[in-house]
Design a protein that fits this description.
Layout lengths: L5 E4 L5 H14 L5 E6 L4 H10 L4 E8 L4 E7 L1
Parallel strand pairs: 1-2
Antiparallel strand pairs: 2-4, 3-4
Length: about 80
């Protein structure tokens, strides 16, 4: 079973704080640590933002894919 360093329930945050909270949490991870995000829709735009802003620094794995809840494990390389 995977152990997550941090879990973020994205709908708990106001819209303007969602991505900054996720990126700040990711940046605080040590190499090899994994965070989990839980969202109410597919976080595909966040994945593209990670690809642009944290190129080659992360892995992305869907743990649950809707239709009501999406869970993603994001690991720091």
């Amino acid at each position: 079973m995977t152990t997550f360093t941090k879990t973020i329930n994205v709908p708990d945050y106001p819209p303007r704080e969602k991505h900054p909270t996720i990126f700040n949490t990711f940046d605080s991870l040590k190499s090899g640590e994994i965070m989990q995000i839980i969202n109410d829709h597919d976080p595909k735009p966040l994945y593209y933002q990670f690809m642009m802003e944290r190129t080659d620094q992360f892995t992305w794995e869907y743990l649950e894919e809707g239709p009501e809840k999406w869970k993603v494990a994001i690991a720091k390389k």
